[in-house]
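User: Please fill in residues for this 267-position structure.
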C-alpha cells in the first residue's frame, strides 16, 4: 500500500526519477524523459489543466496536469488530476493550442470535472476524468480533437505510440518549459502485469508502454496527458514506478475500456 501511495504521489506531485542518477530528479511535473520537442500542430489534441492562485492580488496560473481534447466541449484527463470538490471551478481552466507550458494558446473556463466514480487511489483503477468547457473549443491547426480508441483497435505488444506533455527540461524548471513527446511501444499486458507483480495489479482498464530502445529512454509525460497510437487516443498518463526504468513500463488508463462512460459524460 505504501508503494502505491508513493507511486501516486510521484505522479500527482509530479516528479520523475531517473534510476542511474544518485539524486532523484524532481520537478513540479511528471515529464517526458529524453523526449524531443514537438510543435503543438503535431499534437493538436494536447491540452493542459491549469489552476489559478492569487498572490498579492496578482493572479498566477499554474500547470496542474496534461489533458486531451476529444470533442469541442470535452477534454479527458486522469482522475487523480481532478481537484477536490471544494475547489472552485472558476479557479481552473483548460488550455489548448500552445507549444509552451506557461504561455500562448487559449484558456477555456470549465463547467464540470467528473472523475470516474470507481476511481481508486489505492488500486489506481479507473484513473479517468472528463472536463467540460463552458464554451465550445475553437478548432484550428493547433487545436483539434482526437478520436478515442474502442476495443476494435488492436494494440499488440510493440505497437508504436506517442506520449506528449509539457515538460521541464531542466531540474530547476527555470529554463524552457516546452511541449515534449516521446515514441514508445505498447507493452503486452502479461509482460506489464509481471513487471508490476509485487507492486500493483495491472487490470483491463490499464495499458502499458515503454521505449524498448534505451537510447530513447522515454518516460511518461504529464499525468492526464495523451498516449496516441494508430491515430487514436489509446491511453491517459496514469502512473509508474520510477521513470525511464527498464523494469517498469509506464502505465496508462486504457481508454477503450471507457467508451460508454465517456459517451455518458459527454451528453
Ligand atoms: C471503433 O472505432 C472505429 C475507428 O474510430 C470506428 O470506425 C468504429 O465504428 C468503432 N466501433 C464501434 C463499435 O464504435
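Assistant: Residues filled in for all 267 positions:
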Amino acid at each position: 500500500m505504501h508503494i502505491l501511495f508513493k507511486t501516486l504521489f510521484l505522479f500527482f506531485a509530479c516528479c520523475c526519477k531517473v534510476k542511474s542518477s544518485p539524486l532523484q530528479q524532481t520537478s513540479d511535473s511528471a515529464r517526458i524523459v529524453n523526449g524531443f520537442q514537438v510543435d503543438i500542430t503535431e499534437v493538436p489534441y494536447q491540452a493542459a489543466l491549469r489552476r489559478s492562485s492569487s498572490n498579492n492580488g496578482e493572479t498566477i496560473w499554474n500547470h496542474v496536469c496534461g489533458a486531451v481534447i476529444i470533442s469541442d466541449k470535452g477534454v479527458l484527463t486522469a482522475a487523480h488530476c481532478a481537484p477536490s470538490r471544494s475547489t472552485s471551478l472558476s479557479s481552473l481552466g483548460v488550455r489548448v493550442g500552445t507549444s509552451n507550458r506557461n504561455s500562448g494558446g487559449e484558456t477555456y473556463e470549465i463547467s464540470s470535472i467528473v472523475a470516474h466514480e470507481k476511481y481508486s487511489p489505492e488500486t489506481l483503477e479507473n484513473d479517468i476524468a472528463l472536463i467540460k468547457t463552458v464554451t465550445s473549443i475553437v478548432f484550428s491547426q493547433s487545436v483539434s480533437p482526437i478520436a478515442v480508441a474502442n476495443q476494435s483497435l488492436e494494440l499488440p505488444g510493440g505497437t508504436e505510440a506517442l506520449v506528449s506533455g509539457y515538460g521541464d527540461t531542466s531540474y530547476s524548471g527555470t529554463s524552457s518549459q516546452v511541449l515534449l513527446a516521446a515514441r514508445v511501444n505498447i507493452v503486452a499486458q502479461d509482460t506489464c502485469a509481471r513487471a508490476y507483480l509485487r507492486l500493483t495489479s495491472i487490470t483491463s482498464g490499464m495499458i502499458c508502454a515503454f521505449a524498448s530502445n534505451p537510447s530513447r529512454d522515454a518516460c511518461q509525460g504529464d499525468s492526464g496527458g495523451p498516449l496516441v497510437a494508430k491515430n487514436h487516443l489509446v491511453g491517459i498518463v496514469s502512473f509508474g514506478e520510477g521513470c525511464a526504468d527498464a523494469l517498469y513500463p509506464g502505465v496508462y488508463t486504457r481508454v477503450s475500456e471507457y467508451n460508454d462512460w465517456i459517451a455518458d459524460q459527454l451528453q
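For context: The two ends are 36 Å apart (CA to CA).
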